[in-house]
Amino acid sequence: MSAGPSWARSQELYARAVDLLPGGVNSPVRAMTAIGRDPIFVSQGSGAEVVDVDGNRLLDWMCSWGPLIAGHAHPAVVEAVTAAAALGTSFGAPTMAEVELAAEVVDRVPGAEMVRMVSSGTEAAMSAIRLARAASGREKLLKFAGAYHGHSDGLLAEAGSGVATAVGAGSPGSEGRTVPPAGVPASPGVPSVQAAATLVVPWNDREAVEAVLAEHELAAIIAEPYPANMGLVAPAEGFLAFLREHAERSGALLVFDEVISGFRVARGGAQEREGVTPDLTVLGKVIGGGLPAAAYAGPVELMQLVAPAGDVYQAGTLSGNPLATAAGLATLELLDSAAYDRLESISRALADGLREAGREAGVPLHVSFTTGLLTPFFHEGPVRSYGEARACDLDLHAAFCRAMLTRGVYLPPSQFEAWFPSLAHTEEHVERTVAAARDALAEVAR
Ligand code: KE4
Question: Of the residues 42, 122, 319, which should be mutated to test ligand 1's pocket, given the most ligand atoms within 8 Å of the CB?
Protein backbone atom coordinates (compact mmCIF):
# COMPACT_ATOMS: atom_id res chain seq x y z
CA MET A 1 0.00 0.00 0.00
CA SER A 2 1.28 3.50 -0.73
CA ALA A 3 2.83 5.41 2.14
CA GLY A 4 -0.50 7.20 2.47
CA PRO A 5 -1.10 10.94 2.44
CA SER A 6 1.38 13.50 3.75
CA TRP A 7 -0.01 16.11 6.11
CA ALA A 8 3.09 18.32 6.40
CA ARG A 9 1.29 21.56 5.49
CA SER A 10 -1.56 20.78 7.91
CA GLN A 11 1.07 20.25 10.61
CA GLU A 12 2.70 23.61 9.83
CA LEU A 13 -0.64 25.40 9.96
CA TYR A 14 -1.62 23.59 13.14
CA ALA A 15 1.64 24.64 14.84
CA ARG A 16 0.78 28.24 14.01
CA ALA A 17 -2.92 27.87 14.81
CA VAL A 18 -2.42 26.61 18.36
CA ASP A 19 -0.72 29.93 19.23
CA LEU A 20 -3.65 31.92 17.92
CA LEU A 21 -6.78 29.79 18.49
CA PRO A 22 -7.62 27.66 21.55
CA GLY A 23 -6.64 24.14 20.51
CA GLY A 24 -5.86 25.52 17.07
CA VAL A 25 -9.52 25.40 16.03
CA ASN A 26 -12.75 27.35 16.23
CA SER A 27 -14.85 24.39 17.37
CA PRO A 28 -13.48 21.61 19.62
CA VAL A 29 -14.52 18.52 17.67
CA ARG A 30 -12.48 19.71 14.65
CA ALA A 31 -9.28 19.25 16.67
CA MET A 32 -9.55 15.46 16.13
CA THR A 33 -8.35 14.80 19.69
CA ALA A 34 -11.02 12.07 20.02
CA ILE A 35 -9.26 10.04 17.33
CA GLY A 36 -5.74 10.70 18.59
CA ARG A 37 -4.32 12.81 15.80
CA ASP A 38 -3.84 16.44 14.80
CA PRO A 39 -6.45 18.19 12.68
CA ILE A 40 -6.44 18.32 8.92
CA PHE A 41 -6.73 21.79 7.37
CA VAL A 42 -9.07 21.81 4.40
CA SER A 43 -8.60 24.12 1.41
CA GLN A 44 -11.63 23.37 -0.76
CA GLY A 45 -14.60 21.11 -1.29
CA SER A 46 -16.53 19.89 -4.29
CA GLY A 47 -19.43 17.44 -4.28
CA ALA A 48 -18.61 14.58 -1.90
CA GLU A 49 -14.91 15.42 -1.62
CA VAL A 50 -12.64 17.89 0.10
CA VAL A 51 -9.03 18.70 -0.73
CA ASP A 52 -6.75 19.44 2.21
CA VAL A 53 -3.90 21.97 2.28
CA ASP A 54 -1.45 19.20 1.34
CA GLY A 55 -3.45 18.47 -1.79
CA ASN A 56 -4.92 15.19 -0.51
CA ARG A 57 -8.35 14.54 -2.02
CA LEU A 58 -10.57 12.97 0.64
CA LEU A 59 -14.01 11.39 0.36
CA ASP A 60 -15.99 13.36 2.93
CA TRP A 61 -18.76 11.76 5.07
CA MET A 62 -18.69 14.64 7.54
CA CYS A 63 -19.91 17.37 5.13
CA SER A 64 -19.51 20.19 7.62
CA TRP A 65 -21.60 18.30 10.26
CA GLY A 66 -24.77 18.32 8.23
CA PRO A 67 -25.46 21.60 6.42
CA LEU A 68 -24.12 20.35 3.07
CA ILE A 69 -26.92 17.95 2.19
CA ALA A 70 -26.35 18.93 -1.45
CA GLY A 71 -22.60 18.36 -1.17
CA HIS A 72 -19.74 20.86 -1.23
CA ALA A 73 -20.02 23.93 -3.51
CA HIS A 74 -23.20 22.80 -5.23
CA PRO A 75 -23.47 25.03 -8.37
CA ALA A 76 -27.03 26.16 -7.54
CA VAL A 77 -25.97 27.19 -4.02
CA VAL A 78 -22.79 28.94 -5.17
CA GLU A 79 -24.73 30.80 -7.85
CA ALA A 80 -27.42 31.91 -5.38
CA VAL A 81 -24.89 33.12 -2.81
CA THR A 82 -22.76 34.88 -5.45
CA ALA A 83 -25.80 36.71 -6.84
CA ALA A 84 -26.94 37.71 -3.37
CA ALA A 85 -23.47 38.93 -2.38
CA ALA A 86 -23.31 41.17 -5.43
CA LEU A 87 -26.42 42.97 -4.12
CA GLY A 88 -25.04 43.44 -0.61
CA THR A 89 -24.21 41.02 2.19
CA SER A 90 -26.37 42.38 5.01
CA PHE A 91 -28.82 45.20 5.55
CA GLY A 92 -30.09 44.82 9.11
CA ALA A 93 -33.48 45.32 7.53
CA PRO A 94 -36.10 42.79 6.44
CA THR A 95 -35.70 41.25 2.99
CA MET A 96 -37.96 39.24 0.68
CA ALA A 97 -35.74 36.16 0.97
CA GLU A 98 -36.42 35.89 4.71
CA VAL A 99 -40.14 35.83 4.05
CA GLU A 100 -39.69 33.21 1.35
CA LEU A 101 -37.49 31.00 3.54
CA ALA A 102 -39.95 31.24 6.44
CA ALA A 103 -42.72 30.20 4.05
CA GLU A 104 -40.65 27.18 2.90
CA VAL A 105 -40.11 26.12 6.53
CA VAL A 106 -43.81 26.48 7.33
CA ASP A 107 -44.69 24.48 4.22
CA ARG A 108 -42.37 21.62 5.27
CA VAL A 109 -42.34 21.36 9.07
CA PRO A 110 -45.60 20.11 10.63
CA GLY A 111 -45.10 22.06 13.89
CA ALA A 112 -44.19 25.34 12.19
CA GLU A 113 -46.78 28.06 11.61
CA MET A 114 -44.34 30.90 12.30
CA VAL A 115 -40.54 31.09 12.25
CA ARG A 116 -37.77 33.20 13.74
CA MET A 117 -34.38 33.08 12.00
CA VAL A 118 -31.16 33.23 14.04
CA SER A 119 -27.52 32.50 13.19
CA SER A 120 -26.70 29.23 14.95
CA GLY A 121 -28.34 26.14 16.39
CA THR A 122 -27.13 27.20 19.82
CA GLU A 123 -28.97 30.50 19.49
CA ALA A 124 -32.09 28.76 18.20
CA ALA A 125 -32.22 26.20 21.03
CA MET A 126 -31.46 28.83 23.68
CA SER A 127 -34.22 31.08 22.33
CA ALA A 128 -36.75 28.24 22.09
CA ILE A 129 -36.16 27.43 25.76
CA ARG A 130 -36.57 31.09 26.72
CA LEU A 131 -39.87 31.13 24.83
CA ALA A 132 -41.01 27.90 26.49
CA ARG A 133 -40.24 29.37 29.94
CA ALA A 134 -42.14 32.55 29.12
CA ALA A 135 -45.13 30.66 27.72
CA SER A 136 -45.34 28.19 30.63
CA GLY A 137 -44.35 30.54 33.45
CA ARG A 138 -42.01 27.77 34.61
CA GLU A 139 -38.21 27.51 34.69
CA LYS A 140 -37.01 23.90 34.83
CA LEU A 141 -36.24 21.89 31.74
CA LEU A 142 -35.56 18.23 31.04
CA LYS A 143 -32.97 17.11 28.49
CA PHE A 144 -31.53 13.71 27.67
CA ALA A 145 -28.03 12.50 28.43
CA GLY A 146 -25.92 12.55 25.29
CA ALA A 147 -28.14 15.01 23.45
CA TYR A 148 -26.48 18.21 22.29
CA HIS A 149 -28.43 21.42 21.84
CA GLY A 150 -25.55 23.87 21.42
CA HIS A 151 -23.40 25.43 24.11
CA SER A 152 -25.74 27.81 25.95
CA ASP A 153 -25.28 27.55 29.73
CA GLY A 154 -28.46 25.71 30.59
CA LEU A 155 -28.15 23.10 27.86
CA LEU A 156 -24.62 21.79 28.35
CA ALA A 157 -25.45 19.31 31.13
CA GLU A 158 -24.37 15.81 30.09
CA ALA A 159 -24.30 16.95 26.48
CA GLY A 160 -23.08 14.84 23.62
CA SER A 161 -21.11 15.81 20.50
CA GLY A 162 -17.89 17.66 21.28
CA VAL A 163 -18.73 17.88 24.98
CA ALA A 164 -18.70 14.08 25.18
CA THR A 165 -15.05 13.97 24.22
CA ALA A 166 -13.86 17.16 25.85
CA VAL A 167 -14.93 18.68 29.14
CA GLY A 168 -15.70 16.33 32.05
CA ALA A 169 -16.59 13.46 29.76
CA GLY A 170 -16.04 11.18 32.67
CA SER A 171 -18.39 13.13 34.98
CA PRO A 172 -21.03 11.05 36.81
CA GLY A 173 -23.92 10.51 34.43
CA SER A 174 -27.65 10.07 34.93
CA GLU A 175 -27.58 6.45 33.70
CA GLY A 176 -29.06 3.99 36.11
CA ARG A 177 -30.29 6.67 38.49
CA THR A 178 -33.95 7.00 39.39
CA VAL A 179 -33.61 10.57 40.59
CA PRO A 180 -31.28 12.27 38.11
CA PRO A 181 -28.70 14.77 39.32
CA ALA A 182 -30.21 18.22 38.93
CA GLY A 183 -27.91 20.45 36.91
CA VAL A 184 -24.53 18.84 36.69
CA PRO A 185 -22.68 21.65 34.88
CA ALA A 186 -20.92 20.14 31.87
CA SER A 187 -18.41 22.92 31.65
CA PRO A 188 -16.52 25.26 33.95
CA GLY A 189 -18.10 28.69 33.79
CA VAL A 190 -21.69 27.48 33.76
CA PRO A 191 -23.35 29.09 36.82
CA SER A 192 -24.69 26.43 39.19
CA VAL A 193 -27.95 28.33 39.37
CA GLN A 194 -28.28 27.90 35.61
CA ALA A 195 -27.34 24.24 35.70
CA ALA A 196 -29.74 23.61 38.59
CA ALA A 197 -32.70 24.30 36.34
CA THR A 198 -31.70 21.52 33.95
CA LEU A 199 -32.61 17.93 34.73
CA VAL A 200 -31.04 15.10 32.76
CA VAL A 201 -32.31 11.56 32.24
CA PRO A 202 -31.16 8.72 29.99
CA TRP A 203 -32.58 8.62 26.46
CA ASN A 204 -35.39 6.10 25.92
CA ASP A 205 -35.97 5.81 29.71
CA ARG A 206 -39.71 6.21 30.29
CA GLU A 207 -39.53 5.57 34.04
CA ALA A 208 -36.89 8.28 34.50
CA VAL A 209 -39.03 10.78 32.58
CA GLU A 210 -42.08 9.89 34.68
CA ALA A 211 -40.02 10.23 37.89
CA VAL A 212 -38.95 13.76 36.91
CA LEU A 213 -42.47 14.78 35.93
CA ALA A 214 -43.77 13.51 39.27
CA GLU A 215 -41.23 15.69 41.12
CA HIS A 216 -40.94 18.85 39.03
CA GLU A 217 -43.06 21.31 37.10
CA LEU A 218 -41.20 21.69 33.81
CA ALA A 219 -41.21 24.50 31.29
CA ALA A 220 -39.99 22.14 28.59
CA ILE A 221 -38.78 18.73 27.59
CA ILE A 222 -36.15 19.16 24.86
CA ALA A 223 -35.03 16.25 22.70
CA GLU A 224 -33.31 15.49 19.47
CA PRO A 225 -36.06 13.22 18.08
CA TYR A 226 -33.32 11.26 16.28
CA PRO A 227 -30.36 11.82 18.62
CA ALA A 228 -27.16 12.07 16.56
CA ASN A 229 -24.78 13.59 19.12
CA MET A 230 -24.15 10.38 21.02
CA GLY A 231 -23.90 8.71 17.66
CA LEU A 232 -27.25 8.01 15.97
CA VAL A 233 -29.45 6.43 18.66
CA ALA A 234 -33.02 5.81 17.50
CA PRO A 235 -35.98 6.57 19.77
CA ALA A 236 -37.46 3.35 21.15
CA GLU A 237 -40.80 2.36 19.64
CA GLY A 238 -43.41 4.86 20.86
CA PHE A 239 -40.97 6.92 22.92
CA LEU A 240 -41.57 10.18 21.03
CA ALA A 241 -45.35 9.74 21.33
CA PHE A 242 -44.79 9.04 25.04
CA LEU A 243 -42.92 12.35 25.37
CA ARG A 244 -45.67 14.16 23.47
CA GLU A 245 -48.40 12.73 25.71
CA HIS A 246 -46.56 13.32 28.99
CA ALA A 247 -45.52 16.85 28.05
CA GLU A 248 -49.15 17.63 27.24
CA ARG A 249 -50.39 16.14 30.47
CA SER A 250 -47.81 17.93 32.63
CA GLY A 251 -48.08 21.39 31.04
CA ALA A 252 -44.49 21.25 29.77
CA LEU A 253 -43.77 22.27 26.19
CA LEU A 254 -42.22 19.62 23.95
CA VAL A 255 -39.25 21.01 22.00
CA PHE A 256 -37.76 18.96 19.16
CA ASP A 257 -34.22 19.94 18.30
CA GLU A 258 -34.12 19.11 14.58
CA VAL A 259 -30.93 20.99 13.81
CA ILE A 260 -29.55 17.73 12.38
CA SER A 261 -32.70 15.77 11.43
CA GLY A 262 -34.61 18.74 9.99
CA PHE A 263 -35.04 18.61 6.20
CA ARG A 264 -32.60 15.62 6.24
CA VAL A 265 -34.42 12.50 7.44
CA ALA A 266 -37.56 13.62 5.61
CA ARG A 267 -38.94 16.76 3.99
CA GLY A 268 -40.62 17.64 7.29
CA GLY A 269 -37.91 16.16 9.51
CA ALA A 270 -38.30 13.50 12.18
CA GLN A 271 -41.60 14.96 13.36
CA GLU A 272 -43.09 14.23 9.93
CA ARG A 273 -41.61 10.71 9.78
CA GLU A 274 -42.80 9.87 13.28
CA GLY A 275 -46.13 11.72 13.18
CA VAL A 276 -45.33 13.46 16.47
CA THR A 277 -45.63 17.25 16.42
CA PRO A 278 -43.74 19.22 19.07
CA ASP A 279 -44.76 22.59 20.49
CA LEU A 280 -41.51 24.17 19.27
CA THR A 281 -38.97 23.08 16.66
CA VAL A 282 -35.30 24.04 16.54
CA LEU A 283 -33.73 24.04 13.09
CA GLY A 284 -30.25 24.72 11.68
CA LYS A 285 -27.57 23.34 9.36
CA VAL A 286 -29.51 22.48 6.15
CA ILE A 287 -31.66 25.62 6.52
CA GLY A 288 -28.53 27.71 5.80
CA GLY A 289 -27.02 25.39 3.18
CA GLY A 290 -23.54 25.88 4.66
CA LEU A 291 -23.91 29.51 5.73
CA PRO A 292 -24.69 30.63 9.29
CA ALA A 293 -28.43 30.24 9.72
CA ALA A 294 -30.80 28.53 12.12
CA ALA A 295 -34.34 29.04 13.34
CA TYR A 296 -36.95 28.17 15.88
CA ALA A 297 -40.55 27.68 14.89
CA GLY A 298 -43.94 26.85 16.31
CA PRO A 299 -47.63 27.70 16.35
CA VAL A 300 -48.68 31.33 15.96
CA GLU A 301 -49.94 31.65 19.53
CA LEU A 302 -46.49 30.74 20.85
CA MET A 303 -44.34 32.55 18.32
CA GLN A 304 -46.38 35.77 18.68
CA LEU A 305 -44.90 36.01 22.20
CA VAL A 306 -41.50 36.79 20.64
CA ALA A 307 -40.43 40.47 20.31
CA PRO A 308 -41.44 42.70 18.72
CA ALA A 309 -44.83 40.98 18.43
CA GLY A 310 -44.61 40.01 22.09
CA ASP A 311 -42.35 40.54 25.10
CA VAL A 312 -39.94 37.61 24.83
CA TYR A 313 -36.79 39.36 23.74
CA GLN A 314 -34.44 37.82 21.18
CA ALA A 315 -32.46 39.57 18.45
CA GLY A 316 -29.52 39.19 16.05
CA THR A 317 -27.51 41.47 13.79
CA LEU A 318 -27.17 38.91 11.03
CA SER A 319 -30.35 36.91 11.61
CA GLY A 320 -31.84 35.88 8.25
CA ASN A 321 -29.04 37.59 6.33
CA PRO A 322 -29.21 37.61 2.52
CA LEU A 323 -26.35 35.17 1.90
CA ALA A 324 -27.59 32.50 4.32
CA THR A 325 -31.18 32.80 3.16
CA ALA A 326 -30.04 32.53 -0.46
CA ALA A 327 -28.02 29.40 0.32
CA GLY A 328 -30.88 27.96 2.39
CA LEU A 329 -33.50 28.54 -0.29
CA ALA A 330 -31.28 27.09 -3.01
CA THR A 331 -30.60 24.02 -0.87
CA LEU A 332 -34.21 23.38 0.09
CA GLU A 333 -35.18 23.66 -3.56
CA LEU A 334 -32.96 20.64 -4.32
CA LEU A 335 -34.73 18.49 -1.72
CA ASP A 336 -37.56 16.89 -3.68
CA SER A 337 -38.93 13.38 -3.09
CA ALA A 338 -36.28 11.87 -5.40
CA ALA A 339 -33.62 13.45 -3.21
CA TYR A 340 -34.93 11.64 -0.13
CA ASP A 341 -35.08 8.37 -2.05
CA ARG A 342 -31.42 8.87 -2.96
CA LEU A 343 -30.39 9.72 0.59
CA GLU A 344 -32.24 6.65 1.85
CA SER A 345 -30.65 4.26 -0.66
CA ILE A 346 -27.10 5.62 -0.21
CA SER A 347 -27.44 5.45 3.59
CA ARG A 348 -28.82 1.92 3.47
CA ALA A 349 -26.12 0.68 1.07
CA LEU A 350 -23.42 2.21 3.25
CA ALA A 351 -24.87 0.65 6.41
CA ASP A 352 -25.14 -2.79 4.79
CA GLY A 353 -21.58 -2.56 3.46
CA LEU A 354 -20.10 -1.49 6.79
CA ARG A 355 -21.95 -4.26 8.64
CA GLU A 356 -20.53 -6.80 6.19
CA ALA A 357 -17.04 -5.36 6.57
CA GLY A 358 -17.33 -5.61 10.35
CA ARG A 359 -18.46 -9.22 10.15
CA GLU A 360 -15.58 -10.11 7.81
CA ALA A 361 -13.01 -8.50 10.12
CA GLY A 362 -14.59 -10.04 13.21
CA VAL A 363 -14.99 -6.55 14.71
CA PRO A 364 -18.13 -5.83 16.81
CA LEU A 365 -19.74 -3.11 14.68
CA HIS A 366 -23.35 -2.09 15.19
CA VAL A 367 -24.42 0.26 12.39
CA SER A 368 -27.35 2.56 13.13
CA PHE A 369 -28.81 4.41 10.16
CA THR A 370 -31.79 6.31 8.81
CA THR A 371 -32.29 8.49 5.77
CA GLY A 372 -29.26 10.74 5.50
CA LEU A 373 -27.66 9.73 8.81
CA LEU A 374 -25.49 6.82 9.95
CA THR A 375 -23.21 5.82 12.84
CA PRO A 376 -21.07 2.67 13.03
CA PHE A 377 -20.85 1.93 16.76
CA PHE A 378 -17.84 -0.12 17.87
CA HIS A 379 -20.14 -1.99 20.21
CA GLU A 380 -21.57 -5.49 20.50
CA GLY A 381 -25.28 -5.12 19.75
CA PRO A 382 -27.55 -2.09 19.54
CA VAL A 383 -26.85 1.25 21.26
CA ARG A 384 -29.97 2.59 22.95
CA SER A 385 -28.58 5.27 25.26
CA TYR A 386 -25.61 7.53 25.96
CA GLY A 387 -24.35 5.07 28.56
CA GLU A 388 -24.22 2.33 25.96
CA ALA A 389 -22.61 4.71 23.44
CA ARG A 390 -19.91 5.49 26.01
CA ALA A 391 -19.29 1.76 26.37
CA CYS A 392 -18.14 1.57 22.74
CA ASP A 393 -14.52 0.67 22.02
CA LEU A 394 -13.38 4.27 21.55
CA ASP A 395 -9.78 3.28 20.89
CA LEU A 396 -10.82 0.96 18.10
CA HIS A 397 -13.09 3.64 16.67
CA ALA A 398 -10.20 6.13 16.74
CA ALA A 399 -7.82 3.67 15.08
CA PHE A 400 -10.46 2.99 12.40
CA CYS A 401 -10.89 6.71 11.65
CA ARG A 402 -7.12 7.17 11.38
CA ALA A 403 -6.82 4.14 9.12
CA MET A 404 -9.66 5.39 6.92
CA LEU A 405 -7.94 8.77 6.59
CA THR A 406 -4.77 7.13 5.29
CA ARG A 407 -7.07 5.48 2.72
CA GLY A 408 -8.53 8.84 1.66
CA VAL A 409 -11.83 8.65 3.56
CA TYR A 410 -12.65 11.50 5.93
CA LEU A 411 -15.01 10.50 8.77
CA PRO A 412 -16.50 12.53 11.63
CA PRO A 413 -13.66 12.30 14.20
CA SER A 414 -15.73 11.08 17.14
CA GLN A 415 -17.82 8.03 18.05
CA PHE A 416 -20.42 10.48 19.39
CA GLU A 417 -21.36 11.88 16.00
CA ALA A 418 -23.10 10.78 12.81
CA TRP A 419 -21.96 10.43 9.24
CA PHE A 420 -23.77 12.85 6.89
CA PRO A 421 -24.46 11.36 3.45
CA SER A 422 -25.36 13.98 0.84
CA LEU A 423 -26.92 14.12 -2.63
CA ALA A 424 -23.35 14.27 -3.98
CA HIS A 425 -22.53 10.78 -2.63
CA THR A 426 -22.89 7.98 -5.17
CA GLU A 427 -22.91 4.20 -5.14
CA GLU A 428 -19.26 4.39 -6.27
CA HIS A 429 -18.41 6.43 -3.16
CA VAL A 430 -20.14 3.80 -1.03
CA GLU A 431 -18.16 1.00 -2.72
CA ARG A 432 -14.91 2.92 -2.19
CA THR A 433 -15.75 3.50 1.47
CA VAL A 434 -16.73 -0.10 2.15
CA ALA A 435 -13.57 -1.40 0.45
CA ALA A 436 -11.45 0.99 2.53
CA ALA A 437 -13.37 -0.03 5.67
CA ARG A 438 -12.76 -3.72 4.98
CA ASP A 439 -9.04 -3.01 4.73
CA ALA A 440 -8.93 -0.61 7.68
CA LEU A 441 -10.88 -2.95 9.98
CA ALA A 442 -8.57 -5.83 9.12
CA GLU A 443 -5.64 -3.60 10.03
CA VAL A 444 -7.02 -2.29 13.33
CA ALA A 445 -8.49 -5.62 14.42
CA ARG A 446 -5.04 -7.21 14.48
P1 KE4 B 1 -24.52 25.25 16.27
O2 KE4 B 1 -24.57 26.28 17.39
O3 KE4 B 1 -23.20 24.48 16.25
O4 KE4 B 1 -24.89 25.85 14.91
O5 KE4 B 1 -25.68 24.17 16.55
C6 KE4 B 1 -25.71 23.54 17.80
C7 KE4 B 1 -26.48 22.24 17.66
C8 KE4 B 1 -27.78 22.20 18.15
N9 KE4 B 1 -28.53 21.07 18.06
C10 KE4 B 1 -28.02 19.95 17.50
C11 KE4 B 1 -28.87 18.72 17.42
C12 KE4 B 1 -26.69 19.94 16.98
O13 KE4 B 1 -26.19 18.80 16.44
C14 KE4 B 1 -25.91 21.10 17.06
C15 KE4 B 1 -24.49 21.16 16.56
N16 KE4 B 1 -23.98 19.97 15.98
C17 KE4 B 1 -22.54 19.77 16.11
C18 KE4 B 1 -22.21 18.41 15.47
N19 KE4 B 1 -22.85 17.33 16.11
C20 KE4 B 1 -21.78 20.89 15.49
C21 KE4 B 1 -20.31 20.61 15.25
C22 KE4 B 1 -19.43 21.46 16.13
O23 KE4 B 1 -19.75 21.63 17.34
O24 KE4 B 1 -18.37 21.93 15.62
Answer: 122
